Here is the input.
Amino acid sequence: MDEQREVQVKNPCHRPVFLILTAVIAAVIITVVSISVVQNKHILQKYKYGIVLDAGSSHTSVYIYEWPAEKENNTGMVRQTHTCHVKGKGISSYSTIPEKAGMSLQECMEEAKQKIPVARHPETPVYLGATAGMRLLKMDNEDASNKVLASVTNSLKKYPFSFQGARIILGQEEGAFGWITVNYLSDNFRKAMGTLGALDLGGASTQITFIPKQEIESQDNTIDFRLYGNDYHLYTHSFLCFGKDQVLRLSLAEKSRYTLDKNNSTLSDPCFHTGYNSSKKYMDVFDTPCVKEKSALPKDFIHVGLGDWAECQNSVKKVFDASHCRYSTCSFDGVFQPSVEGKFGAFSAFYFVMDFLNLTSGTLEDAKLKMRRYCSTPWKDIVQRYPKILEKYLSEYCFSGTYILTLLEHGYKFTSNNWKDIQFIKKIGDSDAGWTLGYMLNLTNMIPAEAPDVPLMPHGGYVSFMVLFTLLVFLLFFLAFLYYRRSTRTAQKDII
Ligand SMILES: Nc1ccn([C@@H]2O[C@H](COP(=O)(O)OP(=O)(O)OP(=O)(O)O)[C@@H](O)[C@H]2O)c(=O)n1
Ligand SMILES: [Ca+2]
Here is the structure.
């Protein structure tokens, strides 16, 4: 009995010091693991939202963006979650009935209310940016343009979001924010490995933006950004009146000077298919500040197609004025442009048209051949081939494709050699290529000038490291314990 008690007293596991030590070590390990998990854990994925209305010349689109709340300043986090196309034409078309401009936005804004969680409504910023259609209306009738902007402002203020303003954005902003969008979505700012130029074609204006190798000779065409610790010195230009709808009007006005019949009522056009014959109103075609020399057409005229691509290209070339340039190089209309450099993303109508014509890949020569074939196809065959496409869109693709090839080759000076550098894109990931995302990122300061500090280890790595470390401590402790017990038992046996 006495011997047994002696063994029990000598067993180290039963010593209070040992038990206290075990408890303390276990408590330390549990605390370390808990702190590591709690301190470094992902905050539950809460999203924030932003709304941008793109009030273009031809239509308005409402874009909803979302991003994880705790990753506001990490590039590549913002994505487009919803788009709503406002029914009807662009807001500039409401110049005579401005109150209807605001009303036209209601359906899409109601949709936005449904899509964004109610708790987030008050902090969700709403921006409306109007582009070339409103720039033209302002030139034509400033009072009407103010009334349209007031109407959309009143309408947007009625929603539970945080309205941040409705304004006509500058052409430079439109170009630069389109560039920011495509490079943000391609993750080029974080990688700092070269950027993508941006080509945007709308109904009333077109933008070209890229980082040139040459010096930028005109101050009007430069814009500087410091993003993620890198400086970007951009060339950008927006050509008002060179969107595809306005160029169609310019080119019709030009043709009306020499292709009218003796009754002045028929306008023959090589950019429309043979057999195309449509009665149009003079006002609809020529009532724009872009057409300076109005011709003497009657109130109504008949637009007749000739389906001749080569002639069409000749007529389109006439809208580019290459007669003067006070810089070392110009694109057209006396506008400075350095040589195009690097890869480009071409979006909006560049994509709609080239995608329809199946010209988003292949060489410039292929594109010209296909256009020649397409334009010479009779109108009745085209209508038969594409029964679901609106006649207005369908009738204009020969003109639009020809304009795009001419603008890129003769306007911006792309060649057969660098044609492959143009990628015709609609979206990058989930988000549309266009100026709206870049506009919002800029106004919400979501791309910091300096790259944020990155943690030494990602969250998952840190937690795994702590768990492994703890297991290792446990194992060592256990092995030490086994070793200690064995050595004390051997000692006891020796004593016995
Ligand atoms: N599926 C589509 C959609 C649009 N379009 C044409 O593309 C042009 C409009 O392009 P968009 O980028 O939407 O122009 P806006 O933003 O309205 O105009 P802007 O940027 O000049 O203000 C219009 O001529 C329209 O007819 C097209 O050919 N096919
Ligand atoms: Ca546009």
In short: The chain has a mean pLDDT of 90. Residues 47 and 68 are 4 Å apart (CA to CA). The first strand starts at residue 47 and ends at 55.
